[in-house]
């Protein structure tokens, strides 16, 4: 297998790495790599931070290992290689009546990446996290050992792998339980929301299986926390034609997302939904993958990149989330991208992010003032008994993360069993001192 030296980065482009990359195309090639030159794996590099980086070392690019290995049209069980993209599963199987049970806000992440971060979607309050719909996973561990784990077989290893940021072995393949869909469309109801308190009330009262809110991170005073709530259901029938995706061709200058510009954009975007609301039918991908309408949108933040702060706080501490939104709105640092969702209890792994409560995700251009603000928001999250998402965080300390994830020691012990020499350790694991060999 040929190793090629290259530069690469996470989606936020704040952390970067340079090292040797191998791109296997067959299971036999991957097995040989893990036997002779073990290394951590990466997919489409849609994690925002350094969880996929191994600066100065080797990394295995799994994107060419994207085959469908088996599919049962009666049960919706599909077995795929780890490099299969989530959006491809929707494209291929929705016309046949099945889609993945849980999808993120973009279709580009791989199944391996979805497992490594136990991703969640707009229906978490109903169906939980991605890992809860993984029937089994096949791992290749350093030295070439091949292990199958499931909720019933090697179940501790399975829990350490779901959301386990790739430290228990390179994921070769997985069996997934998909859910039935009556068609290739979604019926989407949009509601203009006046403030934060109304937002939480509407999220709590929603009876839809999919819901997500966009928040105007610049609104203050009585309008603080205003936004747009989108509620949706899978359906069949005529749909409006989705607009083609647009590509951001170059890195924008820093002033492109200045505070006045963002404030004007957000105000206009909020008003795009009439006060009476709006209902439309659209392709599934057009609703569940809104980030894919703009290719390379991370270039909007310029060469310095951006940070995304994503937290979840328990239901009983929603007042702290309100304080977090208020602090962001007063800072003048918010970007147009800010999302709020209601989460249920579902989580599949020891380091899985979700808890029952509310999750907020918001982007900030990478600037010193933003890092100071994010540190304050992290402290508020800790105080509220919440968590930061390991697929997004690029700034937190190991002590902060360990305080949020009480099972991290059990996870670390399982990672050490699978990888005693620390050959799968990545930059994020080193930054947060999550493993003893780090």
General description of the model:
By secondary structure, the chain is α+β, with helices and mostly antiparallel strands. It has helices spanning 27-36, 86-93, 111-116, 124-127, 155-161, 196-205, 259-270, 284-288, 318-331, 368-383, 398-404, 408-418, 427-432, and strands at residues 4-9, 16-22, 41-42, 58-61, 68-72, 77-81, 98-99, 134-140, 146-149, 170-177, 179-180, 185-193, 210-215, 227-235, 246-247, 278-283, 294-295, 306-314, 338-343, 357-365, 387-388. It has an 8-stranded antiparallel β-sheet. Strand 1 and strand 2 form a beta hairpin. Helix 5 crosses helix 12 and helix 9 packs antiparallel against helix 10. It is globular. The two termini are 27 Å apart.
Q: State the helicity in percent bands.
A: 25-40%
| CATH level 1 class label of the largest domain | Alpha Beta
Low-confidence segments: none
Strand content: 25-35%
> Mean pLDDT, nearest integer?
96
Query: Could you describe the largest sheet, including whether it forms a barrel?
Result: 8 strands, antiparallel
CATH homology superfamily name of the largest domain: FAD-linked oxidases, C-terminal domain
Distance N to C terminus? 27 Å
Output the number of helix runs. Answer: 13
Class per helix and strand makeup: alpha+beta
Do you know the CATH topology of the largest domain?
Answer: Vanillyl-alcohol Oxidase, Chain A, domain 3
**Cα-atom Rg, whole angstroms?**
21 Å
Principal-axis shape? globular
The total of beta strands comes to 21
Organism: Sinisalibacter lacisalsi
Domain FAD-binding PCMH-type: 14-181
Pfam family, one: FAD_binding_4
Protein name: Oxidoreductase
